[in-house]
Structures are given as C-alpha cells and as structure tokens.
Amino acid sequence: MQSSDAPALRDIVLVGGGHSHAVLLRRWAMRPLAGVQLTLVCRDTHTPYSGMLPGYVAGLYDYDQVHIDLRTLAQAAGARFVRAEVTGLDLQAGRVQCHDRSIAFDRLSINIGATPRLNVPGAQPHAVPVKPIQRFNAHWLSLLERVRARPSRVAVVGAGAGGVELLLAMQARLQRQLQPLGLQPPQFDLYSSTPQIVPTHNRRVRRYLLRLLQERGVQVHTAQTVTGVWAGCLQTASGQVFDADEVVWVTQAAGAPWLRSSGLALDEGDFIVVNQHLQSVSDERVFAAGDIACLQDQPVEKAGVFAVRQGPVLHDNLCRSLRGQALRSYRPQRRWLALIGTGDGRAVASRGAFFAAGSWLWRWKDAIDRRFMAGFSVEPEPMAAVSEPATLPLDQDEAAQALSAQAMRCGGCGAKVGASVLGRALARLPSTSGHADILVGPGDDAAVMRVPAGKALVQSVDFFRSFTDDPWVFGRIAANHALGDLFAMGAQAHSAQALATVPPGLESRTEEFLYQMLAGALQTLQAASCALVGGHTAEGRELALGFAVNGWVDASLQGLMTKSGLRAGDRVLLTKPLGTGTLLVAHQRLRARGRWIDAALDSMMQSSQQAAQILRAHGARACTDLTGFGLAGHLLEMTRPSGVDVEIDLSALPLLAGALESVASGHLSSLHAANAQFAAALREAPPAHPLLPLLFDPQTAGGLIAGVPADQAPACLAALQSAGYTQAALIGQVLPRSSEAAPLLLKT
Ligand SMILES: Cc1cc2nc3c(=O)[nH]c(=O)nc-3n(C[C@H](O)[C@H](O)[C@H](O)COP(=O)(O)OP(=O)(O)OC[C@H]3O[C@@H](n4cnc5c(N)ncnc54)[C@H](O)[C@@H]3O)c2cc1C
Q1: Residues enclosing ligand 1, CB less than 6 A?
Q2: Helix (H/G/I), strand (E/B), else coil: 218
Q3: 188 shares a domain with 136
Q4: 413 a catalytic residue
Q5: pTM for this prediction
Q6: For residue range 200-234, what is the model confidence (pLDDT) as tens digits?
C-alpha cells in the first residue's frame, strides 16, 4: 500500500499468481519501487507450487504446505490483491478487463500458466484437465470418494513427466487409502501419443519409469492418440475403444483463449511471444513469464523451474521499464535437473543424460521444495523494506501535480476534489436514471425527490475509513453497510448520496480511485434499485466513504421492523456469520489465511435485502443490522426498548472461517475494548469461553439480527439458507424480562 504522503504515480498490474509473480512479490516486499502501486489480479487466492503438487495428490502434504497464500504475500509486500479472473485486455485504454470491473495499468505482467487443450470430441464434458489446479483438486477429492463406492478404471491422457508423476501419485494415494479397507484400488491406464513415455527425458529415465509403471500394474498405451471421450470409455486413433470411468487430461498445454482477442502477438499455441527481456514483442508495456510466455529466440520447456528463475528478471525489468532504463536479459539454463516423485517416498533424477533413482532423492527433493515454500511464509513484522528511489519520468503536468499532492493542502472547500477530475470519474459511471420519483438528480445543488403517496421516508447515514486498499471492493462494502440500516427497518431502498475522501495524487489516479470506488458502490446500489443522486468528495489523508441513504416504508408503518419489536417466545435469527472485525485485524498483522479474508469480504458484500424480505414474510417485527457494537451491543439495543431478555446459544453462533483462531490468537479490533463493556449485560458469563470475544467483535456490513415467532422460525431459517444466507442460524430465544439487571443470558 502506498503511504498517503507519497502518492503513487504509476501502476504495475500483475495478472495471475504463478511462480514468477510469487517470486516478484517476495522481492517487492524488500525492494519496492517508490511511487508505484503494485496490484496482483488473480483468480485464486492460494496458488499451488508445482514441484509439490504431485506430493499433495499422493497425500504426502496438506493443502497449505503446497499452496502460496497470495493475499497474505501481497499484503506483506505492500501490494494490492484483487481476487478476480481476467477475461480480456484493452491495450489502447491500458486496462485489464475482469468480469465486472476493469483495472488501469502503466505496465502489465502476465503469469497465468497454461491449460491442457481439451481439443478432442467429448473431452470437454468427460475429461478433467489437470489445470486449473483448483478445479482438478475438487475433482480429485470427489474421485477419492467415488472409487470407494465401486471399482473404477482411471485413464491418464498425456505421458510427459507431469502425467506420469500425477498417475503414480494418484495410484499411491488410492492404494494406501483403499487396501486397508479391503477395497479394490482402480486400474490405471496411461495414454501417450508418442512411441515413448516422458519423451523429453533420457533413455534411462524412460526405461526406469516404464518398468515402474508396469510393475505397478499400469497399462501403458504408447503411440495411441486419444481421439474421442465418452462417459465410461475413450477411443484412440487406431479405432480401439477402452473402458475409462475417470479421464484425467495432462496433455500439451495451450494459452488462455481470451488472449486471442487481446491484440498481443501470440504463437500458434496462443502463448505470448516475448523477447529476451520477457517483454511482449508487440507491446513494450506488457511482459509475460512462466508457461504462458514463449521466448522468441529460445523457447523453453513448460516447467515451473523456468517460471521461478524468471521472477527476478521480471521484477527488475518492470521497474527499469518504468524508469526508462535499459532492460536485463533473461538467459534460460540449458540443462535443468528434474526430480520426478514416484508417490512412494522415492524420486527419479533426470538431467541431460544423467539418471538416478531412490528414496534419498525424494528426501532431497522434499527438502528443496520445503525450503522454497518457507521463503513465502511471511513474518508478522516484515523487515523494513528499502524503497528504490522514485526516479520515474513524469511529464511537466504530472510533475506539477505530484508536487502539489505533497504540498500543504487547503481545508474547507479548498479540500474538494477538482471539478474536472470528479466530472470525468462520474461520467464513466453507468447512468442511474430510471426513478420517476427523482425530480432533480446529480449535477444540481441538491437532489429533489417526491415521496410517493402512502409512503413514509426512512433515512440513515454511515461512513468509515477504508480497511482494504481495493477501492472497488471498499465501495461495494461501504454501500452495502449503509443499506443494511434500511433493510433492517423493512424499508425499500430508494436513493443515496455519497461522502468520500480520497488521498491527493496525480489527477488521473485520483479519477481512477474515485471511479473504482463509486463503480463498486453503484453495483451494490443498483442491485438494490437505489439511485445515486449526489454527494461530496474531498481530499483527505485516508480513503473513506459513506452514504446517506433514503428508503420508503408504508406510511401506515405496516411491515416496519424496529429494535423494540422483540416479543417473549420469539426465536432470535442471525443471517450472516460473525468475525469480520477480528479477521481484518489478523490480516493486517499477516496472520490470517487468504481464504478466510476472501470469505469475510464475500460476506460483507452480500446484501441483506432479500434476508429482510424473508424475515418480514415470516412475521419478524424486530430487526437490526449487526455492525460496530458487536452482537452483544446490538442485542442489548434490542432488549432494552423491547423490555425483554434474550438467551444466546453460544454453540449455535455462525462463525466465519478462521474467526475463532483469530480471536484466540488475540487479534482484536481497536473497538473491541469499548464493546467489551457490554459484558456487564451478560448474566453469569462463563469466564473463559473461547466464543465470548466474538460477542464483542465489531462487524462491517454484518448480518441482520431478528426476532421471529417461534412457529415460523424453522421455515424462516430454511428460506434464508436456500436464498444464499448459508450460515444463517437460530442463535437464541427471547425471554420475558426478569428482575435481574443483566438482560443477556448465555447458553453454552
Ligand atoms: C502434475 C504436474 C507436475 C508438475 N511438476 C513439476 C515439477 O516438479 N517441476 C516443474 O518445474 N514443473 C512441474 N510442472 C509444470 C508446472 O506446473 C508449470 O510449468 C508451472 O506451474 C507453470 O507456472 P506458471 O508460473 O507459469 O503458472 P501457474 O503455476 O500455472 O499459475 C498460474 C496462476 O495464474 C492464475 N490465473 C490463471 N488464469 C487467470 C486469469 N484469467 N485471471 C487471473 N488469474 C489467472 C491461476 O489462478 C494461478 O494462480 C508440473 C505440472 C504438472 C501438471
């Protein structure tokens, strides 16, 4: 993340979290380039290390041992992490396109790997490619279950080192798992279009692996190109048909199809053609590395070892290119040592004509791989990074803007973001017209709207500092958080006004920041049929965003839900899991797993609109949205005006993954201490229950807490869960007010 006193001037965007980019991020943590915002856009938060992947399949490593946590690595490196799949490039505009947003770049680097070509009839529906790995992994885990139920025949198509290693790993795992249960392990078949297996390795390696496969009962079909796949069988070019219940595809890989329309020069396999500087031969702002790159003058094998070695050169060249300096050349090693695991605690070494095999090689490989992965486990307090001096070439206009951004800034109206910047950002947003009730919209001094006949106006406001450096995600969550107040009242959202502060910087970057933040917010507002009718944007040290929101309820107040509507006998429902506060702190301290933060952000982005409708339809009269005061604080706000007590069933509380570990490790929000005062409202609290701290955890865009009549509660819960609030839970019941002072009882 860029400090607000030194504005970022340029953007480097990394697409894909392959091996080269992981190495680059690690180096960036130590040597960032001042004035540059680094952003990693990746489909997966956890990226596999290829060297250990077969060991994971063989059951020798667990998931976290073989995956690099990109979100945490990026956080440690001061880089922004965007979890998104890239679907295209707009080179003219200098933007990377994802499904629902686009991201600007000054320099772009692509390290997205390659996927086996499923270019045979029937392969798409019936075969599972080894990449993307996340999909293969899900399939592998379900295959492990399926083969328990019935004897199967597994075909591996592709007999390069990857295919052979994968087959041996799968077979070893299944044998270990099934034999003790007296179940029959599957029969394996290996299909190779070439006359020999592992054709790029030496004769002794080929002979050894062939013999090993045969000893393990694998049927090896050489010179048999698979030409068709059906459910339960496959056909080869010779016309023979073979049984195959499961087909795993590990053949020659190809580049992502979206690259074809990107405008970049590609080779016949859709790989990006790069020069010796790893720079696209058709666009000097774009670099590529790893499997997706094709070196123009000396193509290399598609292997992780090359991707890893390219990382440092890529880092240097992206920085040099921004500074206008001469680029470094990448020289691939002519020979490289391949260590191929055989799934049984042994490995084969292959380098040129060299061959060796044995368990010592597996131990050696294991030590190398573990050391490599240890380099990506980030420390809670990373060593102070030494920034490369900011010597970025700027044009005259930009230099003036950069100077002004660091100079003393005015307050009052002088702190407003310039009209042209704001105008340009707003002009890029989709139109919000369509509400007949809005008589005067954005652009005038104030918005004018008609309150429809028979309706009453509901208003609320919320505002907070950014907790993520991704302005689009922040915009979505800030809007969702504000709308939560309306939904909790049972109101229909109508219109919103935004209040934003953005750090000063180059006009183009301020415009982009504002655009991203408002585009994210608008997506959330529009999904709730809520129009953005105005706002105010100022410069400030920190990114912050809030909304004043308007909604309607029936003037008769029928269907209105308030905090005072709890009735003794009601069941208490919570629509989303707890834990956003503690998880965000743990992430800041580099102590959360990336997937925990993914789930927390997804939860914060989930709208409560439908949940409120379901609650109302099931007779809820009392509701509030769970935010800063935590569960105990917000329940207390409901019990007091309702004149009731509430019993909370601690074991029923829905939790975000990692929340419990996070509070147990002492990662508590700065608001936690103030919220802990609500402990006085707890009757006979167990002194050291592990879930207690989560009662005081402040939530951002948390779920709805509601009181629902007991007879409707099970149906209400089922409706919530099938509407996508999968962790909604019945967390307690409403009791008549007792004479005791503390209104919250805990059931453990
Ligand atoms: C079974 C098997 C075993 C192997 N064993 C070895 C080995 O021991 N040693 C070795 O050197 N090589 C090995 N390889 C080869 C190795 O896997 C690849 O060469 C290596 O993974 C390529 O790395 P990469 O950095 O190019 O990309 P990858 O590691 O494939 O990473 C690509 C990344 O990009 C992301 N991504 C993809 N598309 C998009 C998109 N559109 N938008 C955003 N993000 C995207 C993915 O989520 C992923 O994080 C093996 C291959 C297989 C199949």
Answers
A1: 15-20, 41-44, 47, 50-51, 53-54, 85-86, 111-113, 130, 162, 165-166, 250, 256, 290-292, 302-305, 307
A2: coil
A3: yes
A4: yes
A5: 0.93
A6: 999 999 999 999 999 999 999 999 999 999 999 99
